[in-house]
Sequence to fold (597 residues):
Amino acid sequence: MDELRNSAALLRRGRGRRRRQPQLRGGSLLALPLRPRKIRRPRRGAASRVAALRARALPSLEASDAKAEPTAGEREGPAERRETSRSAEPRPLPVRPRPASAAAPPRRAEGRAALSRHPGPPVPPPGPHGDQPERPGDSPLQHVLAELDGIPSSRRRAARLFEWLLAPMPPDHFYRRLWEREAVLVRRQDHRYYEGLFSTADLDSMLRSEDVHFGQHLDAARYVGGRRETLNPPGRALPAAAWALYRAGCSLRLLCPQAFSPTVWQFLAVLQEQFGSMAGSNVYLTPPNSQGFAPHYDDIEAFVLQLEGRKLWRVYRPRDPSEELALTSSPNFSQEDLGEPVLQTVLEPGDLLYFPRGFIHQAECQDGAHSLHLTLSTYQRNTWGDFLEAVLPLAVRAAIEENVEFRRGLPRDFMDYMGAQHSDSKDPRRTAFMEKVRVLVARLGHFAPVDAVADQRAKDFIHDSLPPVLTERERALSVHGLPVRWEAGEPVNVGAQLTTETEVHMLQDGIARLVGEGGCLFLYYTVENSRVYHLEEPKCLEICPQQADAIELLLRSYPEFVRVGDLPCDSVEDQLSLATMLYDKGLLLTKTPLVLS
Fold:
């Protein structure tokens, strides 16, 4: 808790005051005892309490909850941050089976690229594991989504879905050897692999039933004769206008399909926990014998999922070191700007293509076949440089306040030997000046508020995130599963309550973050986020300093359960008050369903 207060003080030096978020004071669904009882027990740190919980847990549970190995474009690539209104209801809709695409002969990749044949242990084949029943007729995607619903830990669900996305390539090999380094092609020869994720039928239905507007949700573009054109008419994208543009040779780019498709929402909401970074997407429908976008590179890691039809892709390495792992997207390039592609291949349904930031790419339809693909994007502005941009100004401010060496005056004559006009000078005073700068810069590390900046980036990620999609278990054991309803003119089944014997844990891993700001503590959370990027302001609860240890215990103990009576609070009333507030907000679930009092 002291570290959070210190972090808040450091950030306050370098930031203007933020508008204070009022503590939420809604009516509780749960009843509380009226008389508090004081609890006297020796205090233990959150780490020791988590260790005790893990020691009591079954070894198989701890092993199964281990995280996957951590890691250290064409405007078809990034998920645009302009998105449409979306519901925050955290329940996934069932995936409807759709007919498989027509089979086509397999094609081989050309050029130097990483393929899906690697040494090392193979990942499990896609489909149900354990006790999940095999359902005839379901696609591999539908099988894995059904499997995820039976995995209790959200971090394991994220690891399993990413494993499925890369299969048969092992994720640890991908992260060690290929992530941010190479273009990767995974060839599956299974046209039904992504069936149920998104389709042209879904797009047509969306145009008919949703409030889709050109420029905001849908773009129409084409690339002809080396020139890119965007042909968005004003107003709503009605089917007649959208399909007329498609027939005229325009590619249709749907921005933020997760705002309209519950399956895409679930797909991204699970994977964002794997990346620890916002996961977005766009969908592209390209007519036969056409190209929608000029060659370019993007500022995101791109995963291209071929859903329907066929498309010829050409991927090129960065042209020089300044474009490697680019922080901004490029302008459009001409064909004369490009060299030889590192990969040239035709993607077919079920195939996956990955390329890092800064890799130039272009894609076109040939042979009279249309193409529908989804680009999953992540890791936008999530670099060491971005982190240091936030850390160093605060470190300088802290150093100036705390160390007199940073407040001593510059040499009176430094302009006589420093600056561009003196860059070739051999003046010994110049050497001494440069050495002094190096010494002071080296000392900045002692003043760098690294944890405070990490908390702020985590808070930003909480705001960027999609709201969680709940499994049936999470729904049944959280506030969403309470049987309260209106019946016969009055509310019924009211009065379920937590007790000190109730065992709880966070709804999912990574849905909340405790952050110190302005001398106060706030718990930021994702459960009330919109499916549209930043449609809402960040959501948080103000936390009393006396509650901080209990919050840290809950955040760090997931997925182990904690007795409400074991929360490190001053009284039973405080324990129940905190647990009730978090449960009512949808941040906790219980080990067993609550019973009515």
